[in-house]
Amino acid sequence: MYTRGARILVVDDTKKYLDICRKALEGDYDVLLATNGREALALLERYRVDLILMDVHMPELDGFETCRILKGISAYKHIPVIFFTSSDNHEDIATAFSEGAVDYVIKPFHTIEIRERVRIHLELKLSRDELIRQKLELQDEVERRMQEVERTRDSVIRVFANIIETRDPLSANRMNKMQSYARILARELAKEKRYQKKLTQEYIQILYRATPLHDIGKIGVPDRILLKPGSLTQEEFQVIINHTTLGYETLKTAKLDIGGNSALFEMAMDIALYHHERWDGNGYPYGIKGEEIPLPARIVALADAINHKTAGKTGEDSAYMDQVLEELAMESGKKYDPLLVEAMRRTRDLLVREFLEDVPET
Predict the structure, then answer these.
(1) 301-341 residue pLDDT tens
(2) Domain limits of the chain?
(3) Taking CA atoms, which of 26, 157, 175, 300 is between 20 and 30 Å from 355?
(4) How many angstroms separate the Cα of 240 from the Cα of each of 9, 30, 162, 167, 201?
(5) CATH classification of 168-356 is 1.10.3210.10, yes or no?
């Protein structure tokens, strides 16, 4: 392995050994000389160094302390250090390795020994550097592939959501706003002590991405029922109820087929299944209540209601949104989580701003 041209820093307070090392290494390597640890550190600030040969016992700053300082600095900690020692003192040798040295040489030494130790450890360093480079390249490639998978998955989610929007006039072109409403509510709820650990930025971002799939089960609802202007029969309403379980099963299958971010699909499944449950237990499909309803479903239920009641009204004055928020607030403890309703009240200005925006937040 080619190591010529590497830069070697030799640190020793004895001129004799500095000269020996210089003569042994010059010609093959660029050699820097220092007489103590402080000089060595100063040179390291000016030059890139590939390997350090350093005496253990020096005035001002000895080899052990210098090595300790080096290993505490990220730019220097991977530079191999070979110590010189005047004897085979086991305590010194043990200390040398504990401080991060890769090897040691006992004085007096021969030039050939220095050359071979330097060559071997430079080759090891080059091998390690190559492994690190390959690892970083692999990590970059994995990250790139994961991003491609995420983009593909988001595209699939958007296609599903667009299918629902085209079939439901009240939802058309409103999904981005509903996502924003859900994110606004979640961020505000995260200020509550009980939810601070759960509602992290990552969690809220997953919620944002999962929200468009809340009504994916409507794919299985016939247009004659989904778009029926009048009241539904009991049988027709049961079909509507079933869209929650159908959505859950659809996403469960997609999770197995697509793979990847299971957290996204797990949350989307909960939202699809439970977003029509009510805080008081009078919702569907199971009639569960309160905190039995998964948090993402509770958030999306309120965001969905805001979105539904303001459908077709974008660009109206803020008074309309105020009216909607007051109507929804009256359902606190009935349809909706009281803490979420309070979060809705506190974020009135953000919700109104989003409502009035012609271009949805992305």
Answers:
(1) 999 999 989 887 755 578 888 999 999 999 999 999 999 99
(2) 7-137, 168-356
(3) 157
(4) 77, 78, 19, 14, 33
(5) yes
